[in-house]
Amino acid sequence: MRLILLGPPGAGKGTQAKILIEAYGIPQLSTGEILRSAIVAKTSLGLEVKEIVDRGDLVSDAVVNGIVSERLDADDCKSGFILDGFPRTIAQAEALDMMLVDKGMKLDAVVEIKADADELVRRVIQRARELGGVRADDNEEVLRKRLDVYKDQTAPLVAYYTEDGLLKAVDGMAPVDEVTAAIRVAIAH
Ligand code: AMP
Predict the structure, then answer these.
(1) What distance in angstroms lies between residue 75's CA and the mean position of ligand 1's atoms?
(2) b/e per residue 105-136 (b: at least 16 CB within 10 A)
(3) CATH number of residue 16's parent domain
(4) Is 188 inside a domain boundary?
């Protein structure tokens, strides 16, 4: 199973990915988590991207494309993967298409998790409280920026993957287990 989870910050991509990796026995590839680990470890990548991530902007396509391409070559991706937070721009989606052709892989589905903006703000503020400052980008001001970036740069991917016939949409406002069930139904069809 090769899957992309698409949706704005707070929609539940990470939560659903963590459930689905158990169900399908495949890894979650979260570019956001990879970047956050690099920032915490203060690697050269981390130092390069810290400011960009903290203010809610997108890291360059070249950087994330490189991370994903390398990650897809690992053994644990042979039987599938869940991409969470990548691609986020049309250029990334095109780069991914090329990577997958090169690697002889094909996507099974792109699941869009839909949620309304007020609920997203509420969830991210709750996440900030629960994590207690672990994510510098989980505050209302940066979140509003991330939602704008999503609308401008990432939402066009819905049309991109609809054209490919890969897009399935689920209601991300439902309880977590219902969203999981809806995703499982969507990708089975
Ligand atoms: P996330 O955990 O997916 O919400 O990502 C957190 C932050 O990491 C984003 O706000 C961006 O700054 C950066 N990031 C994650 N994935 C990407 C991507 N595919 N392209 C560019 N920047 C990304």
Answers:
(1) 24
(2) eebebbbbbebeeeebbebbeebbeeeeeebb
(3) 3.40.50.300
(4) no
